[in-house]
Amino acid sequence: MMDTKNTHFSKKFLHRVKITLICLIILAVIGISLRIIEYIKLRYATQQQAILSVATIKAAQSPKNVEIVLPGNIQAWHETTIYARTNGYVVNWIVDIGDHVKKGDLLAEISTPEVNAQLRQTEADLKTAEANHYLAETTAKRWQNLWKTDSVSKQETDEKVSNEKATAAIVMSTLANRDRLRDLVSFERVVAPFDGVIMSRTTDIGRLINAGSGTVPLFRIVQSNPLRVYIRVPEYFSDNIMPGLTAELHLPQHPRKNFPAKLIGTAKAIDVSTRTLLIQLQVDNAENELLAGSYAEVHLKLPAKDSVILPVNTLIFRAEGMQVATIDGDSKVIFKSITIGHDFGDTVEVVAGVKPNESVILNPPDSLLNGQEVRIISTNTMSKDIQPS
């Protein structure tokens, strides 16, 4: 009976020991598993922390049109300085600065007594020359008739014919001098060469003047409707300057109004000193709101090239040239060489190397390597309505 009880107790004890051992084994397995899991988590976290975190931006397609602002000089359609074309003195001036005149309007009158006297003398000389020529012509005809009957010699006849030709030349010379003096007398009336505005008057009654452009001018006249606007376009945009191009003029003295202008011609050659193309615009000035000689900001809307726009903080300057760091589908870095079209300040136009909507790393570190895995923490998108300025 006692042995039976001892045996039963031993079995129960062994069973408890087994259960205890199993529990200990389970606990050990769980502990080891937890440690392995924690180790894996720690290793993964360490690996993740070792991966460079970057912010990216999507390359934006350039707008269809780009607006550039350039300084422009407004000039008169026609502008000239009027000098006297005959010697004399001013007896009267009709117009003053700011007056509007029409082509052919009288501006001033000049008295030319010496020229008038020369004209009268030349007219008298012309009559004398014509009389001498008439006599020489009649004599030559008579001697030619006499020579036919052998009444005079051939030598004498030739002398009479030669004298007739000489007097004819004197008549022509005197006639030309008479016409020249008549033209000089007609220059007593100083008239406007075209419709315009008197810009300056530098003469007065009684002033003695001489003919020629090296003397003191009488007036300066400008034609202010329409007006010309000259601007220099950078060489990069020269192939976008085409017939039909329009522009807007912004002037500080007219802050609430813009003036439309149209292209009428270009220099058709690049200025090698400035690397610019000189173009000429025409602007209507029927209301005389614009003044010749003014400065204007010219806003040109040009067709954009097939390109993308990127901020300047995506650019990488390396020995290979200008580059950007893009991200592929496996979050790997790919360096791409690019070609810059135009620098707009905080953004640049990229004409080759990057396609629209490609992810480009912002503020890439110097330690970044080609093919390096990175983690994208944020992706920005450039505005679709971006307009470089």
Largest sheet: 6 strands, antiparallel, barrel
Q: Could you give the distance between the termini?
A: 109 Å
As a percent range, the share of strand residues is 35-45%
What structural category arises from helix and sheet content? alpha+beta
According to DSSP, the number of beta strands is 22
| Shape assignment | rod-shaped
User: What string gives the helices and strands in order?
Assistant: HEEEEEEHHEEEEEEEEEEEEEEEE
Using only C-alpha atoms, the radius of gyration works out to 49 Å
- Kindly state the percentage of residues in helix: 25-40%
What is the number of domains?
4
Give structural notes.
The chain has four domains: 2-50; 53-64 and 306-381, conserved putative lor/sdh protein from methanococcus maripaludis s2 fold (Beta Barrel), CATH 2.40.420; 70-75 and 223-303, Elongation Factor Tu (Ef-tu), domain 3; 85-201. It has helices at residues 2-50, 113-148, 154-186; strands at 52-58, 60-61, 65-82, 88-93, 100-101, 106-111, 189-191, 196-201, 208-209, 219-234, 246-251, 254-271, 276-283, 295-303, 308-311, 316-318, 321-327, 333-337, 339-343, 347-352, 359-361, 374-381. 30% of the residues lie in helices and 39% in strands. Helix 2 packs antiparallel against helix 3 (154-186). The longest helix is centred in the first third of the chain and has 49 residues, at 2-50. The chain has 389 residues and is of the alpha+beta class. It is built from three helices and 22 strands. A six-stranded antiparallel β-barrel has the order 3-10-13-12-11-14.
